[in-house]
Design brief:
Elements (H helix, E strand, L loop, with lengths): L1 H12 L2 H18 L15 H14 L10 H7 L1 H13 L8 E7 L5 E6 L2 H19 L15 H14 L4 E6 L3 H4 L2 H9 L5 H12 L2 E3 L2 E3 L12 H17 L11 E5 L2 E6 L4 H13 L10 E4 L5 E3 L2 E7 L7 E7 L1 H17 L5 H19 L8 H21 L12 H8 L13
Parallel strand pairs: 1-4
Antiparallel strand pairs: 1-2, 3-7, 3-8, 4-5, 6-7, 9-10, 10-11
Helix pairs in contact: 2-3, 2-6, 3-5, 3-6, 9-10, 13-14, 13-15
């Protein structure tokens, strides 16, 4: 009795994040110990107070626009978060919760094309997050080490580090750089649900996932039924995508499998992946294409290439991989991993757009807006002992100097104090603007 009261006291002192983590560890361990176990009592976890609080916290952190019902995060706060979550818990408990249509919007891609994005309502995002927190550790126990996208404690940097090890240390020179056509829009619901049901038998959780998959899309003032795919922008979509593509990971990674005997390895980040080996046989590529065809996925032949890294560079996750001459050792080359040209242009476009929209900011406010843009880009491309972005950082520094000079020249009619000075030096020395050439990830 005393032990039980002490345990309850400890639980009451834990944060919602700690309690969620404790539950996830238990689920992960069970899934890892028994690869055939199907979890049958999960739905009740969605109504737990700490689960909903943690789900709300993460949805709020992710920000995001209002969905089909036009209710924003600010509207929920105005209504009262605790009351909103209590009412939502009651809906889930009584099984009266219904998903609302997904709002379809388009965002520009780096190549000038538009990417479709689905925005669920805030309520749907909270319930999806709650469900994700519960089922993610179960599937994490099954996922392969070669996948890095949208997984806890894994990142694009880990994927780039893994690729460098394969190419530079293990001397794998051939790379099959694959691109899937409209992956998120083409996942077949029936085949995806077969994979989900291999681990989950709770019919109410399965009903929720089917509901989200079948939720209609609202676009151009009309509703369209969703027959396949899972919308980019949905909280649970990346997890469902990983569940489906885990089939490819397992096929390539099996130690007794077709690919492994030829030394072929895979590195995947969401729907972007490469095969790498000393030599990739043509029939291995054909076999991979057959697997994807059976999964009802299509490779974009125009963007898919088989290259030898020593002679042909390739791009992956915003980085360019290429062999360059060593300046210090004659007749020697080294693997150079740098930001791709489009990525370098993207940061310049963001800076230019910010300066264009903020023509009347004082130096303190200007620096406050520019620093997150600069730090976000440099943190992504700075991977110690792996990538070499220093040249691009110096180029970015020059771009900042020229841009800020033009910015204050435009303001000269308002008698800006920084017009006749070196604005970049002034802002870095007195106002804390980041100097790209001196910035390191440790900052």
């Amino acid at each position: 009795m005393i032990d039980a009261s002490l345990a309850n006291k400890r639980r009451s002192q834990m944060t919602s994040e700690e309690r969620v983590r404790q539950l996830q560890i238990r689920l992960y361990r069970k899934a890892k110990q028994d690869k055939a176990f199907r979890f049958y009592v999960l739905y009740d976890k969605l109504t737990l107070d700490y689960m909903l609080k943690e789900a709300w916290k993460r949805v709020k952190q992710n920000k995001g626009a209002a969905g089909y019902d036009r209710m924003s995060i600010a509207d929920v706060e105005k209504y009262g978060v605790n009351q909103y979550l209590c009412e939502l818990a009651d809906e889930i408990k009584r099984e009266t919760y219904k998903a609302q249509p997904v709002l379809r919007v388009y965002i520009p891609k780096a190549n000038g094309k538009m990417r479709p994005l689905g925005i669920p309502t805030v309520k749907d995002r909270i319930v999806q997050m709650c469900c994700k927190l519960v089922i993610e550790p179960i599937f994490e126990a099954d996922f392969q080490d070669c996948s890095y996208g949208f997984r806890p404690k894994r990142s694009a940097k880990d994927a780039i580090t893994r690729i460098k090890r394969h190419i530079a240390s293990e001397r794998m020179r051939q790379v099959y750089d694959a691109d899937l056509s409209g992956f998120f829009d083409n996942i077949p619901h029936d085949k995806l649900m077969i994979l989900v049901e291999q681990r989950i038998s709770d019919r109410r959780i399965l009903r929720l996932i089917r509901m989200w998959l079948k939720t209609p899309i609202f676009e151009d003032n009309k509703l369209t039924k969703s027959k396949k795919g899972t919308p980019q922008g949905g909280v649970i979509s990346p997890l469902l995508a990983n569940i489906y593509l885990n089939l490819v990971d397992k096929a390539v990674s099996r130690t007794d499998g077709y690919f492994h005997k030829y030394g072929v390895r895979i590195v995947r980040y969401a729907d972007d992946f490469i095969l790498v080996a000393k030599k990739i046989p043509e029939h291995c590529i054909k076999y991979l294409q057959d697997i994807l065809k059976r999964m009802e996925l299509e490779i974009n032949e125009d963007k898919t290439r088989l290259v030898n890294v020593e002679t042909d560079p390739f791009d992956f996750l915003g980085f360019t991989f290429r062999y360059d001459k060593d300046l210090f050792v004659k007749n020697k080359k080294y693997l150079n991993i740098i930001p791709r040209k489009k990525s370098a242009q993207t940061i310049r476009d963001k800076i230019r757009e910010y300066l264009r929209k903020n023509g009347h900011k004082n130096p303190t406010e200007l620096v406050k807006g520019l620093n997150p843009i600069l730090k976000g880009w440099m943190n992504y491309y700075s991977i110690p002992k792996v990538s070499y972005p220093q040249l691009e950082k110096r180029k970015l520094r020059w771009y900042m100097m020229e841009s800020l000079h033009r910015y204050y020249r435009r303001k000269s009619q308002r008698k800006s104090k920084l017009y006749r000075k070196n604005a970049f030096e002034e802002l870095t020395s007195k106002y804390g603007l980041v100097d790209p050439s001196k910035y390191s990830y440790a900052n």
